[in-house]
Predict the structure.
Amino acid sequence: MSTTGSSERVTYTNILVERQDVFATVTIDRPKVLNALSHATRAELSQAMSELGSEQGVRAIIVTGSGQKAFSSGADIAELEALETAQEGFEHSRRSHELLFKLHALSKPVIMAVNGYALGGGCELALAGDIILASENAQFGLPELNLGIIPGFGGTQRLPRLIGRTRALEIILTGRRLRAPEALEMGLVNRVVPLDELLATAEGIARTIAEKAPLAVALAKQALYDGLESSPRSGCEAEMAYFGLAVGTADRREGTSAFLAKRAPEWQGK
Ligand code: CO8
């Protein structure tokens, strides 16, 4: 990872960042190790999220893996091998979690386009997405127990919230892999599409979201995550507050008057 002088835009070595008109695509680019998430890769993902998060023109972020075989095979096992103490393990997990907290805090949706294996940390990264798409060849799993560790990138928390306690425990305790149709049936992913349609599908969703008022998108996402982390009543109280914030925006006035005038709204993000 380095910074170019003139534009201050970061150059990455483990990921690719491509900007299109209203969205950006981040590709984990370590195909020789099936896009394993080394420390450097996670740091680059975090940097890219900060960069894209602050760019107004980027209304959604797509995350995918390089090649046709893997989204990500998880933590780089060579790096796990080098960990010695409980404290080192804790720090490894803590730094990784920071990346996922950052994803949730972004004011724009993150669409995971899972194009093959999503195992261990790769599955956990996918689970942290706002929308999760899978190609027909995708396989999900948390095989950490096979290595003598446990999921340390949110898997023990996000998976049960998504598919329920008993199904999550079975997946974690057995380490078995789920093929895409089973992941769909369990509600782990939003859609399954052929591999060659995966990115186009993600891009279509990104463009649809980009047609909405930017602040409303951010507030809806925030209300949902705030609610999931609290009781239903305090979640509803958070929703009231965010609804109020949305009503106070210039874009809300534009949205309601454009509807009544039978014209398309023009959002200002204010
Ligand atoms: N780390 C490092 N190297 C890997 C990884 C990995 N996670 N996965 C694959 N590779 C390497 C292989 O060693 C191999 O290298 P080489 O060509 O030098 O032999 C190359 O990638 C290709 O892999 P395979 O030959 O194994 O390919 P196959 O098609 O036979 O198998 C599999 C594909 C099933 C995906 C298999 O590679 C596999 O089981 N990989 C490991 C999956 C796994 O256990 N992941 C969990 C890791 S632990 C984890 O993620 C903890 C997360 C919590 C910490 C938070 C940090 C993110």
User: Anything to note?
Assistant: The radius of gyration is 19 Å. Residues 33-34, 36-37, 73-78, 93, 96, 117, 119-121, 143-144, 147, 151-153 surround octanoyl-coenzyme A (CB under 6 Å).
